């Protein structure tokens, strides 16, 4: 459990759960009621954060994630601390069974790609009428470890394309947008772009963010140690999130 900034690891011997939920009207009604009380009725949103290393991507993702009352960090590189630290899928399944209707923050630190993908798959399992993790946001750091421009595992494909039906959102973080699958790039509601490594990357993103934003990205100065990263956001307002 965690209170404020006090963290305790959670572990359990529980097995793989069934997150599809029941089909009775009472269960669906309870979930909708929880959604209303938490202000989570928006279906979902997808955010892409890109930029060269040390430009502040993880810090920007963290500040955005803190606005999400139900969040799961996919954190094999140990960048995040604001949540319950869980290191294996069985323990994650056990924790979620007990907290699915609550506010929660989980830092999932499995180094096993199969377990990471299983954790992402939970959100789009079962029926959209009774979503397994309503209102969840996945923060997927180093997303290009799990997918590429030419390859996308089924759990990420489903999250990017069908997450809206299950009220599951995601923040994808990578160094280069062109390394992410088209399913993520095309479905993104928001781009947050830091200093880029190659001029060609800006030209690549121009298709999505337009000429004015592309010029603003090219003008981002290098980040100095101790300073916050500078980012260009598209669109400008908060309508995407």
Any overview of this molecule?
The protein has helices spanning 25-37, 57-65, 89-99, 113-121, 154-162, 182-187, 199-218, and strands at residues 2-3, 6-7, 46-50, 70-74, 84-86, 104-108, 137-140, 169-174, 190-193, 232-234. Helix 4 (113-121) runs parallel beside helix 5 (154-162). The two termini are 28 Å apart. The chain has seven helices and ten strands. By secondary structure, the protein is an alpha/beta fold. The chain has an eight-stranded mixed β-sheet with strand order 5-6-4-7-8-3-9-10, sandwiched between helices. A two-stranded antiparallel ribbon has the order 1-2.
Query: Gyration radius, to the nearest Å?
Result: 18 Å
Q: Provide the low-confidence segments as ranges.
A: 1-42
Strand tally, please? 10
Largest sheet composition: 8 strands, mixed
- Give me the strand/helix succession: EEHEHEEHEHEHEHEHE
Shape: globular
Distance between the termini: 28 Å
Average pLDDT confidence is 83
